[in-house]
Amino acid sequence: MIKRNGEFKVDLRKEMRGGNGEVKIEHLWEPGSELKANNRLWARLTLAPTCGIGFHTHDEEEEVFYIVSGSAEADDNGTPVKLGAGDTILTGGGHGHAIKNIGADDLVIIAVISNYK
Prior knowledge:
four-stranded antiparallel beta sheet
């Protein structure tokens, strides 16, 4: 199955998880209807400069962020860390994270949330 850029379902979330600004979520693959594995999210996230996703935890699941482009500051379960293109962060097992765009250009992230069950 192939989906072309621009064919994805798009959600816009304001102040996602208590963060700043708006996050554009492009659902690359839809769990259940397209994906049969235990994924809750398979998406490309775009955060404009100064926008962010607030701190939240992942219980019974894990989330991977892969930074496609831009500059980010992440909260990795209480530890601040800077991330750039090619970097990745994994959160799960009750641990939490947050991320914000600290650059002048859009921050683009591939996000995958997988359930343990």
